Task: structure prediction
Amino acid sequence: MNALTDPRPRGADEAGKAVAIRRLTRRFGDGPAVLDRLDLTIAPGEFVALLGHSGSGKSTLLRTLAGLDPVTEGTITRPRDVSVVFQESRLLPWKRVWENVVLGQDGADRRERAAKVLREVGLGHRIDAWPLTLSGGEAQRAALARALVREPQFLMLDEPFAALDALTRLKMQGLVSELWLRHRCAVLLVTHDVDEALLLADRAVVLEHGQIRTDLPIGLARPRRHADPEFERLRSVLLDALGVCDG
Amino acid sequence: MSETLIGIGARNGSRPVARRLPRLSALLPFRRFATPVLLVLGWQIACSSGLLSTRLVASPAQIVATGWSLTRDGTLPANLSVSLVRAASGLGLALVVGVCLALVSGLSRLGEDVVDAPLQILRTLPVLAMVPLFILWFGIGETPKILMVALGAMFPVYLNLHKGIRAIDPKLLEMARTLGLSRGRTIREVILPGALPDLLVGLRFAVGISWLMLVVAEQVNADSGIGHMMMDAEDFLRTDIILVGLAVYGLLGLASDQAVRALESALLGWRPVYRGRAS
Result:
């Protein structure tokens, strides 16, 4: 899908961390901690996949990082410019696609900027469409465009392809991989899909009972192939960490 | 595909049937009007033959004639404009007050606690039962009439807009937060456009209610307006004038409903339903 084989984070001089989470704890009411003294760092330009069962705290972690949930215990440092793509496109149905993309942005060149990024995600022909007329894949492309137009240093993807059909999902994974190689922002991808994590990420972390139990670097060359024996091995490791027997 | 085949078969088989069918189907949209037209014809015949006393009800022809003469001598236009001004001012007032109250109670919890409870209590009162009180308070001039219309029409505006604001998808509000939209911008770009369909539903109810209020307000202590014209006619047993008034009220209701519908398709072009109708 892409020609680059060794995706390195944006420049070696950009040392340090894009995102640093220190001893983050979150509980609702008197229940058990959803996040339990969690530590996680993401380097600039690094693509991290976050896996875990339902209820393992993935969504809580992402919501906290996105600023939707408050930090009650622990600390979070993250870049100022972040973007989130949700499972649903969350486009405003009463604004045309391009207006959705540059929602909240100012400047006279809003439309051109929207057009440019929409072309980049392959949606240049639907710039004036109403969101309710888009297909599921097109809507997610628009949501990606809306995230990218802000030129984020940190991009959060919350199961962005979970609601798409298998073929569309493959195309979208290719697109995300391409866009990431071009923009080089740090990415946190929340997913249920082990293959997706292995196709896209530099590192896969598995969340369990509010803590990171497995932190697996994925050193595969890109483009990645399912048939690669190393891919198979990493797949078994991840499935094992998720408590699924790889028969 | 199968339809074409059937069509060809029919044309080859029996020509006359094939030729008559399209003509019948062209009349189909007008079939709905057949019953009303027949009823009016029957009414006219009953009046002309003396079956129906014109003291009870005027004939359709008489109504049309009276309507024309009332228009020519200026009675109808004068009264109509008075009624229109009352309805429009009342509705306008209802819109302003209803929208403001809905914004206050829809956008803040404190506002809801302050505004919503009294309005919900007031809502259960039949507004028409307040006519005597309104006359006592505001006399018999234009004020009580306009206020009656405004009070009746305000509730649907308030209730629907409030519901619309509260029903905004929380996921869209979250999205607005992740995009860093300010509170004011979120209200302008997310909440208000999202509640607009509900506001328009409220407006449609409000328009209907304002005519209802107007009828009552104009038949109690008025010296002008369509309702007054009808009450005056009652004293002289002029059923034709009463029926002209009824017809005018009916047409006004129909026209205003169409106007709100037009407004809906203009403002809600993003909804696939309206796109379908427009194309």
